[in-house]
């Protein structure tokens, strides 16, 4: 019996830089374990990219549907039987009009995507006994699958799809609980996320399994060059969406304070990423009095291949991630893979990624001056810094090699079909 997996993404494989990094290794691993891999993106962003794997197809039914392209067309579904049946619970759980509206729209999306996922199932003639439905994000598409009797579905869970209140998006608790009661397995990418969901929705712990994402790298032993003690220079790289939760503006404050505190060294900051605060970041990076020993390069969005090129061709001493919330960031995995220590806030699954000597963990409330003080000992001690580089690379090899992690995960999903045969 041919084995099928229906992978539901946000926008992949259309132009979505961050999701491409997350999802591509899964697609490649799944294609080796399943006879058919069908990708169903919920949105179409920019141009649709081709995937040159024979047994992988992309179904844009949802992404090109009128409900997706013209959001007001969804509104009648607010009066659908499914959504109407939830209004009492929505009202009971909501503490503001925004919460009431968010939870209503969440239920609306559950109802709509249930219908569209049924269409995709019929179009591809998917036999429930030989198909695994896999949502890359634990959101309304996962809840929609709970309304399809006898389908086997699983989901990963990351950051925004785990912590409702931190991202200002509210989902209906009883629907999430119902989804978990019918799901085959939920795979949080961090222990913090797993524990959060377990505490919020007790009774489903046996279905929750920590599964790390990791990162890919062609040359496993390549280490990025760093400055020597004689260079009197330091280069810091950050890769993140320029948005409030990623706190990239705080990255700028840190490098400014570092340059001011260490006028004896040349400080260079390279940032990869774009977002709603990009204009403000550019403004603050080009106006006012910047230290004369500070150089800033804002590169905007880049394909993941370009980020790997930077690690190969540039001298990079540190990677910086000062987010207020995270799952298990691939940016840290990639940094470790190149032997580059990380300066990061102790949020989400980040502390679990570190071992002694792989970087510097910072309290979320730490000021830029506090971060400078925490990093300074390693700037002053070159030998300890070299040990830190080796420890970071070893950590990636032991724990975050995506090629191994994703293949094991794909085999695990395929076994769900084998166990039903």
Describe the secondary structure blueprint for this structure.
Elements: E1 4-9, H1 17-33, E2 36-41, E3 56-58, H2 66-69, H3 81-84, H4 87-93, H5 97-123, E4 131-135, H6 140-145, E5 152-157, H7 164-167, H8 173-182, E6 185-188, H9 191-200, E7 233-239, H10 248-261, E8 266-272, H11 278-286, E9 294-300, H12 304-313, E10 318-321, H13 330-337, E11 342-345, H14 350-353, E12 359-362, H15 368-380, H16 382-399, H17 402-418
Parallel strand pairs: 1-2, 1-4, 2-3, 4-5, 5-6, 7-8, 7-10, 8-9, 10-11, 11-12
Helix pairs in contact: 1-17, 4-5, 10-15, 13-16
Tell me what you see in this structure.
The chain has 421 residues and is α/β, with parallel strands linked by helices. The chain has two domains: 4-214 and 402-418, Glycogen Phosphorylase B (Rossmann fold), CATH 3.40.50.2000; 229-399, Rossmann fold (3-Layer(aba) Sandwich). 43% of the residues lie in helices and 15% in strands. It is built from 17 helices and twelve strands. A six-stranded parallel beta sheet has the order 3-2-1-4-5-6. Strand 4, helix 6 and strand 5 (152-157) form a beta-alpha-beta unit. Helix 10 (248-261) packs across helix 15. It is globular. The termini are close together. 43% of the residues are buried. The mean pLDDT is 94.
């Amino acid at each position: 019996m041919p084995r099928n997996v229906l992978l539901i993404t946000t926008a992949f494989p259309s132009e979505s830089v961050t999701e491409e990094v997350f999802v591509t290794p899964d697609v490649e691993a799944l294609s080796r374990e399943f006879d058919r891999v069908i990708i169903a993106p919920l949105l179409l962003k920019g141009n649709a990219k081709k995937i040159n794997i024979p047994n992988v197809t992309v179904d844009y039914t949802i992404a090109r549907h009128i409900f997706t392209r013209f959001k007001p067309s969804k509104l009648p579904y607010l009066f659908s039987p499914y959504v109407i049946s939830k209004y009492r619970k929505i009202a009971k759980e909501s503490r503001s009009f925004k919460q009431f509206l968010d939870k209503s729209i969440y239920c609306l999306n559950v109802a709509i995507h249930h219908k569209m996922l049924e269409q995709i199932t019929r179009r591809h003639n998917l036999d429930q006994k030989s198909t695994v439905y896999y949502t890359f994000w634990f959101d309304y598409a996962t809840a929609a699958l709970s309304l399809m009797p006898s389908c086997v579905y699983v989901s990963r869970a990351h950051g925004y799809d785990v912590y409702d209140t931190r991202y200002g998006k509210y989902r209906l608790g009883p629907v999430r609980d119902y989804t978990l009661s019918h799901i085959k397995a939920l795979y949080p990418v961090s222990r913090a996320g797993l524990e959060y969901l377990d505490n919020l929705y007790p009774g489903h712990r046996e279905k929750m399994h920590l599964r790390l994402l990791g990162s890919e790298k062609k040359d496993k032993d390549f280490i990025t060059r760093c400055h020597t003690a004689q260079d009197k220079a330091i280069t810091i790289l950050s890769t993140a969406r320029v948005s409030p939760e990623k706190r990239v503006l705080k990255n700028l404050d840190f490098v400014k304070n570092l340059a001011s505190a260490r006028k004896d060294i040349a400080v260079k900051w390279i940032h990869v990423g774009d977002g709603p605060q990009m204009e403000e970041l550019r403004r603050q990076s080009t106006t006012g009095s910047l230290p004369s020993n500070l150089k800033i390069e804002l590169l905007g969005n880049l394909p993941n291949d370009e980020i790997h090129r930077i690690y190969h061709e540039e001298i990079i001493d540190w990677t910086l991630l000062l987010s207020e919330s995270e799952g298990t960031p691939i940016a840290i995995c990639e940094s470790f893979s190149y032997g580059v220590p990380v300066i990061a806030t102790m949020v989400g699954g980040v502390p679990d990624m570190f071992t002694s000597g792989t970087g510097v963990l910072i309290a979320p409330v730490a000021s830029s001056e506090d971060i400078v003080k925490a990093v300074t000992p390693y700037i002053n001690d070159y030998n300890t810094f070299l040990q830190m580089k080796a420890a970071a690379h070893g950590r990636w090899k032991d724990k975050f090699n995506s090629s191994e992690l994703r293949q094991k995960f794909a085999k695990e999903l395929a076994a769900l079909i084998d166990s039903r045969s």
